[in-house]
Design a protein that fits this description.
The protein is built from eight helices and ten strands. By secondary structure, the chain is of the alpha/beta class. It has two domains: about 180 residues, Rossmann fold (3-Layer(aba) Sandwich), CATH 3.40.50.300; about 70 residues, no CATH class. A hairpin with a 2-residue loop joins strand 1 and strand 2. Helix 5 runs parallel beside helix 6.
Length: about 260
Amino acid sequence: MTDGLRSKELETTPIIELKDVSKHFGGIQALRGVSLDLYEGEILGIVGHNGAGKSTLIKVLSGAYTADSGKIYYEGREVEIKSPRDSKALNIETIYQNLALADNLNVPANLFLGREIRNRAGVLDESRMEAETLKMLERLNLKIKSLKVRVVKLSGGQRQCIAIGRAVYFKAKILIMDEPTAALGVEETERVHALMQQLKNEGIAIILISHDLHDVFGLSDRIAVMKNGALVGVKKTHETTKEEILSMIILGKPDEPTVRV
């Protein structure tokens, strides 16, 4: 076992930790004192009904929103995330459901969108970007017929993998994925799942937001349940059931064992 793939039972310092994080919009309390942690090489599933606070939570981590109160720790040190730039500086990359890809551009242009490689004269270095894209595709075992094709012509699974590849290329240590397999077919869903497992094995920590409990149970090491902006509880996946998680989602409290007398 390599240093980057230590057992979660032996981990002592989370790669990211939230303590009592709150966020409100006017009279709406979107997050209510949420405390949550994530470890290197772990997939943490976050589930809950619409309006549970999942999207607000990942937007706080991605820098789209600033928390009103609470603290965030990165590798044990307190940090502030007030903008997407702050988040990226901490090697946090977020892949939203819409992927934020430019349909009219090809694969290299999307990979380096906003972070283009230029030569000393300030001109786009397209040959180098293509070479780096090929390396990324090879690393992630992705096959695309031509780098010149516009991403609008790619399948949903290929587009998702390009978005993941972009995050990985720019040294993501934490990858936040919002409904990554929504609207994908069975084969493409399996491809994305395999890629997520590969990244986990490389030590990348993943936050998985999904309504699909089958996906969550198949991929996650732990599952966090949210309701009405609050954290209901966190369960190790191998120690819980879909029925228990559904009960927590609906009732907003941890499932309690029945006491027989």
